[in-house]
């Protein structure tokens, strides 16, 4: 597996076009995508057999803060409206393969696992609103510290859909008090990429016992006055896969997202 | 049928609670809902057999400006998360019944048509953002004139989903030039109820030949400098039903919406 702390994008990978990023990942590069192809929107991926697609689509509709849908493919399709030339089987840096809710592989390419009945769901990513937070002067501690954003499985249950249920997963960013209003407003203007925070302040309100032990991503240091701010996270469908055990699913590996062709600012409602 | 110009809500019906409005409609009152239970969000309805539910859900996902989903029920359910005590078979003022894409009835109650395999889709309504337009000082010509908002079938095709395809339907509001920015901003802040306009200015860009002959609702007079402003409309699924001919569907009658318990302002992202 690949859970060691990571070095985020450097000047070279930040300047990549989305097409270049996808080409590098297709060649096997397996780096985290935070900061890669800066300015272009990334997406979470979950692919399930057609027999489970209605439940997944309904699960996303019923949990729009965690699972804002940017695209849903036709069964078997390996392309997406989010990019002109992408192949969803090869163009992410790393995938997770799930059988009966168990993680069985983390390859950099899923051609060997692909099935013609797979429906792929591309879900908005909070990296997209980080552009707006940074533009408003909100410091991004995980970026300053060269780490992936920390994510936590909460005790908040999603609204279930058919056979799919599971907890909400959240990402956490430490925000100085004087920037809290900016962070809420700027992310709130981007509902297609999770929108406003679901909670600010007390991790225990979400059933998170220890901020230093995220379930996905890396731990991040809070400055003395920082408030932990929690946003619903596109890893939530992975938690539903783990809880609900469909016979088969593919997802991105947390922090290793699909890089699309749309600009971050296209997801701002104003 | 029921296409004559209508008198909109009076002081009594404006002051109704959503629960009272639903109770009156359940008793058979068949008035348009514009202005009824002022301040509470209304919704479009389309119900299709479970066999068609995936296509409808995907159609809505792929056309989010026209079909922003507020709730999708489990098959056969007559209740919705949008109201605590509602019965979707009786609580709208008037329905349309569709067989093979043909309108076969417009009853005030669909208990006689109900099927246990029906999945109901409740879709955001532009009446909800009219609250914000009015608060920003944008005049609402159709309300001033006591008419239902005019709606037009455009030549813009929706993104298809399985067996469902069809044109985008739009609602039109005349807006004075000095209020155009307000109208765009205020509706843009409410993406769950259609969001910003899809077009301002030239009706022919949408394939609309004659503003005085709407396909649904009533014609509305423009003041001399008014700009016609077009928003994607929740009647779009009805146009898809007419174009794609599922064996059976129920919808609301245009302008006779479901009145839910949520306040209009809950759909504003800020």
Task: Please provide a written account of the structure.
Chains A, B: GO terms for molecular function: lyase activity. Chains A, B: Its EC number is 4.2.1.-. Chains A, B: Belongs to the D-glutamate cyclase family. The structure is a homodimer of 270-residue chains. Residues 1-5 of chain A have low confidence and may be disordered. In chain A, 21% of the residues lie in helices and 24% in strands. In chain A, helix 4 packs across helix 6. Chain A has helices at 11-15, 18-26, 50-62, 127-135, 141-144, 180-188, 236-244, and strands at 40-49, 69-72, 95-99, 102-105, 118-124, 151-157, 167-175, 199-200, 227-232, 248-252, 258-263. The first copy, chain A, has 270 residues and is an alpha+beta fold. Chain A is globular, with a radius of gyration of 17 Å.
Features:
7 helices; PSTPO5379-like; 270 residues; 24% strand; 7-stranded antiparallel β-sheet; alpha+beta; PSTPO5379-like fold; disordered N terminus; 4-stranded antiparallel β-sheet; 21% helix; homodimer
